[in-house]
UniProtKB/TrEMBL annotation:
It comes from the Bacteria. The keyword ATP-binding applies. Keywords: ATP-binding, Nucleotide-binding, Transport. Coiled coil: none annotated. It holds the Pfam family ABC_tran. This is Uncharacterized protein. Gene3D superfamilies: P-loop containing nucleotide triphosphate hydrolases (3.40.50.300). The lineage of its organism: Bacteria, Deltaproteobacteria, Bradymonadales, Bradymonadaceae, Bradymonas.
Amino acid sequence: MSAAQAVDSAKTPKPSKPSAHPVARVGGEPVVISTRNVSLWYGQVIGVNDISLDIGPGVTGLLGPNGAGKSTLLKILSGQLRASTGQATIFGEPIWNNSKIFQRVGLVPEQDAFYEEMTGRDFVIYLTRLQGFSMGEARRLADETLDLVGMSKNKNRRIDEYSKGMRQRVKLAQAIAHSPDILFLDEPLTGTDPVGRHKMIELVQLLGEQGKTVVVSSHVLHEVEQMTQDILLINKGRVLADGNIYAIREMIDKHPHTIRVDCDKPRQFAAILATYEDVVSIEFAPDAARFNIATRDPDACYMRIPKLAREHGIELRGFMSPDNNLMALFEYLVK
Ligand SMILES: Nc1ncnc2c1ncn2[C@@H]1O[C@H](COP(=O)(O)OP(=O)(O)OP(=O)(O)O)[C@@H](O)[C@H]1O
């Protein structure tokens, strides 16, 4: 059985009836999530500002730098925060204080909120029970879902012994165990190792292909575009652009993209990378242990870095896109 079939066949929740309300459409698909003029203030600080959007089935990437309002928007859409003004609906029904809707929603929050002394398995069972499943069903769903996210081997260990990547996978398992129609993931790739990252991306894609509505936030374009082509760009609490990745890519390609490289022989590796035409500049950290490489072809550069490191016997400790990439893009977009 494929993982995709497993996601669906593993679960036997009692599905809620679809809303009787007629729904609008986005790109030929029914609108699942909708907001109109939604704003939220934290005292004097604006979290999100006058956001109106329609999201349909499939994966939508919510992309923005730190502090853009991604978590605030996801919290409003998942019913954790009430908008100060405006309306937010799922399947045409208000989200706030609507327990019927909560059963159709799964959430991977940015912050961990575990009972650390519990095992991963008990944690998923416990939260699945809260969705109204019997103990037997919750156990079965927890086991099947933990298997799906690659946590079978470690599910009976205490959560306080887990790596960051394992924690992310348990968060994903609790979010999908009850087979929700809608899934919100807030920076799910943070701290994941390459295998966990691949697994998470694959699952997000599968859920989208199954017709679930998945909204995934990130501040790294490269991460988001591995999961979807549909992007909402958000900055300073506002949606700046809503559309296809290629249009957004075009804007980005006019700006050099920065990749931070951490390895055991930074000078040697920087010299190798500098020979490529797309590389615009290389800048070392003050201690010269890491360097930033600016490139006009991020895709090629991301592919090339691990390959060259392997070929030249360089130990690559990490490479990632620092926030200032997106900041540069957003500054450009709001000009
Ligand atoms: N509980 C809070 N109290 C006061 N201000 C807050 C609170 N939570 C968020 N903010 C502010 O609201 C704005 C949006 O924050 P939010 O966390 O939604 O952004 P984000 O895009 O998710 O960023 P990050 O990835 O850093 O979490 C920021 O200016 C942030 O400082």
